[in-house]
Amino acid sequence: MATRKSSIPQLTHLDADGRPAMVDVSAKAVTARSATAACRVKFPAAVAAQLRASGLRAGKGGILETAVIAGTMAAKRTHELIPFCHALPLDGVRIAIDWHGERELRIECTARTTARTGVEMEALTGATVAALTVYDMSKALSHAIVLGPARLLGKRGGKRDFGREG
After folding, report:
1. For the Molybdopterin cofactor biosynthesis C (MoaC) domain, which residue ranges apply (predicted)?
2. What are phi and psi of 30, to 5 degrees?
3. Is residue 8, in this structure, part of any structural domain at all?
């Protein structure tokens, strides 16, 4: 009797005995892959107004410039932060930060690689660490700043594509 694969998605970071394990990607083809993730930073109205008036500059320096650098560095080190992520040769990381309405910054991170596994975690890490950096540089104005949601917007390459073009 032939066995059929279940159509229900299964967790991939567990071995046959249910123990945590890194996925073996050695049999996968090397392909171009990309992913885009976003995270939002929401400010109280007075804080947003103050940040806009200062050109997003804080006593520690340029908030956006610092967030871009931090997010890029974090994406490059994702494998050091997330236990079962593979170390990937990133071909590119792009972080864009723009106002979304009067009180909210929208941070997007796109990561690209040519490898055997995808870069979703790198994109998510880049976006969220950039958001954390904005919080860190703005927290002197208020601790009521809210981060999130953080989410994957899209990925390309590998078994299946998801969402918008990365």
Report:
1. 22-158
2. -80, 120
3. no
Distance set, CA 51 to CA 13, 76, 140 (Å): 42, 29, 12
Q: What's the pLDDT tens digit per position in 132-166? A: 999 999 999 999 999 999 999 999 998 888 897 55
- Concerning whether 98 is annotated as a catalytic residue, the answer is no
Prediction pTM value: 0.87
Residue 58 lies in a domain: yes
Q: Which among 17, 91, 136, 161 is annotated as catalytic?
A: 136
Angle at 6 between CA 5 and CA 11, to 5 degrees: 110
Query: Is 159 contained in some domain?
Result: no
Domain that holds residue 125: 33-145
| Helix (H) or strand (E) run with residue 133 in it | helix 120-138
Number of domains in the chain: 1
Q: Which amino acid is at 155?
A: K
For residue 135, what is the domain's CATH number?
Answer: 3.30.70.640
CA 129 vs. chain centroid, Å, equals 8
| Order of strands across the sheet that contains 31-42 | 90-99, 104-115, 31-42, 146-156, 162-163
- Domain membership of residue 23 (yes or no) is no
**CA 113 centroid distance within chain:** 14
